[in-house]
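User: Need the bound-state model for magnesium ion:
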Amino acid sequence: MKALILNSGMGSRMGVLTSEHPKCMTEVFGRETILSRQLRQIAEAGIKEVVMTTGLFDHVLVNYCQSLELPLHITFVKNPVYRETNYIYSIYCAREVLRDDDVLLMHGDLVFENQVLDRVLESEKSCMTVSSTLSLPEKDFKAVIKEGRIVKVGIEFFNDALAAQPLYKLNKEDWLLWLDRITGFCESEKVKCYAENALNEVTDRCRIVPLDVRNELCAEIDNPEDLAVVAEKVRQVENRKVYMCFSTDMVHSGHIAIIKKAARLGRLIVGVLSDEAVISYKRFPLLPFTERKALFESISGVSRVVEQRTLSYRENLETYRPDYVVHGDDWVSGFQKPVREEVLSVLASYGGRLVEFPYSREEKYEKLESRARVRLSLPDVRRARLRRAVEMKGLVTAMEAHSGITGLIVEKTVAYEKGEARQFDAMWVSSLCDSTAKGKPDIELVDMTSRFRTIDDIMEVTTKPIIFDGDTGGLTEHFVYTVKSLERMGVSAVIIEDKTGLKKNSLFGTEVAQTQDTIENFAAKITAGKRAQKTKEFMIIARIESLILEQGMEDALTRADAYVKAGADGVMIHSRKKDPDEIFAFVEQFRKKDPVTPIVVVPTSFNAVTEEEFKERGVNVVIYANQLTRTGFPAMQHAAETILKNHRAKECDEQCMSIKEIINLIPEEE
Ligand code: SPV
Ligand code: MG
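Assistant: Bound-state model below.
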């Protein structure tokens, strides 16, 4: 594609504005002239070759074009008789350099917005810009349209006509028909008419369709009045705001391409999704918000980067009131549909527009994403993430996993609600569930080697941080080894409980004999574990059993204080009461003295309390300790019974997961 810009005209109607340079060098917006704007737009659209016809002030024009330093190769062709001829003759002069390609033809005094140029260039057919909303001009070009084609262009046609602007995209075969006719005209001395007079003689063969730009900016500047009107419109166009939101931490060529497109609509504001929003909807970001923000700030075409705190755009749309929101068309269906609908309704409230570009899932980008996930599963990266998630979110949730498959369920389950997405932040490797899966009681019977095997199974197929239920931690001499092994594996935290002797599950409370450790012994175990620890992110969390063993609030608080002093990175307070009051009382009193140490709760009994309420009261980790086990095994029992009762498997079928669902949950790795 070659751009042909006609700049041989005298521009005499511009008065003093064209006394020292050609009309195209008139400023329209800031320091930008009609010509520098056209050339910039042409270059940005990816065109490399320009042919420019010149006349008066041709040296000024050539020097000016060179000073712009644009990535364009410009061939200047002077019309030696520019005073006596019209641009039909200038084209004739340039004919030899215009025969080998498609042509984007424009007059040198035409000002248009990026979208107009983009649409012209996207047209597969040859086209000319027209406007169905502008009234027919008295003296300027009009195009007569019949059966969807342009049949005549000139100033004298009024029937079946639309206002037309001299901006054409001409496929080579159409252009050569017109160019040959121009040649015919000029060689028979018809040099004072419009090039369109020649076009009108070949429109039966040269197929040009009208491209309706409606009210988009596409206007010629003939005189100072036009200049004032067009300059104001350019100002409005250039000040348009465009908004896009990104959650990604890996900017690839697909993102750059859509950013470039969006920036052509106006000043681009990029909303970067907050860490909290990314974690809840996608995966843990490889880069924190500040770095993702800096990444987008460094991309050319982005004029401002702001935080978007939720998947919903409402807050930012109401703050920045962009003229356009740009998004891929992938959100037309799926969980983001309500987000899109909200965007449309907010935009409609002030007259903004949604622009959607086709979105294609490309394999190379999917591979990048799966590489990111592999990175998240590496021990060093995974281990550090629990602390970071607590810092970022204030409250994190963990769901129990006791095998590869339950790990995958925790990893992949996402609940969508009103355009929001929620998922678990971490996994809890429960002693109760791990033992149950092995058909054994929860009495520290399953040894550490076997527990580590479970962790390994989970780790192999997941990326989320793991909190390990370390029971009592065993002998201090053994616990120090456990700490180092867990760190090496990439586990983020171990929780040990202050019990001693034969451990029983806490939910039995005082119904079974259970002994609480002394404060001194347990504190010493924590200190030994912290000393043995090799990495800075690993957490040892002290679990206080005072409320379970009915030792009272004072005892719980004294122990919490002592364990934190001994080096514990967090405290877990447990209760088996349905009523959350004692948990709330502990949290309130602990927080009065210690506003920072993370508090963990396991609301198996006090399960009516929401995560929001826990967060508000100062809890940092909520562990759903056994729900997959307690729902999964009854389903299996039921299936077994159904088959036994029916002497066949048919009746059990509707309770079964389909093979397709299994494949979705457990994809094969490449
Ligand atoms: C576990 O899940 O194994 C626990 C929590 O230790 S609880 O069962 O509530 O004691
Ligand atoms: Mg346990």
